[in-house]
Design a protein that fits this description.
single chain, mainly alpha, globular, binds fe (ii) ion, Twin-arginine translocation signal domain-containing protein, membrane, Ferritin-like
Amino acid sequence: MSEVESRGLIALDRETSRRNFLKTAAWAGAALSAAGIGGFGVAVRQAQATHEGYVPLGDAGILQFAYQLELLEGNFYAIGADSGLFVDTFLDQIAVIRDHEFAHAEAIAATLGDLGAEVPAEPAFTFPEDATADAATFLGYAATLEPVGIGAYQSAAVALESKDILAAAISIHNAECQHRCAINIMNLVVPPNDVAFEEALPLAAVQDAVAPFGI
Ligand SMILES: [Fe+2]
Ligand SMILES: [Fe+2]
């Protein structure tokens, strides 16, 4: 097949994809209005029900806790990136998530500085002995860690007073959801994106989940 012919096929595929996308988008819009709003209501009620534990912390206290969670994630992915278990695109993805977590921690530290609040010392993290036993075990821990961060941000969002900090928290929350999807892809979860509405986690549940890691 000539290069032109093969380009033509690609163009045809694009047009077919575009039409299918338009059909799918129309269907998805109808489905969302029929069923999605109910799920959204549940998610909102859930976040409202789980945010109480975060309220007494105040914005600075929430950020101090989030800072430690981000350092936990960053250090965890740093161990994974250095473990030798991952190569090529898998290693790239683990390293990028590691960088995201440390970038989140840095941004939160800067905001704490702006608030005149203390940046907590880095906890002495403890990771499970088998964390880097093999790639599947490491990715299994990653798959349990990401939803903890997601649930924490989702609950804390309702408790935050500052809209600016809320906007920053949403941007991090979104990145954490993408981390979960990336980990799902590496874990061969099909389909990797299978959550329509995220789950909010009460503070106590988050604290219980991260306590074994030294927070
Ligand atoms: Fe993060
Ligand atoms: Fe993450």
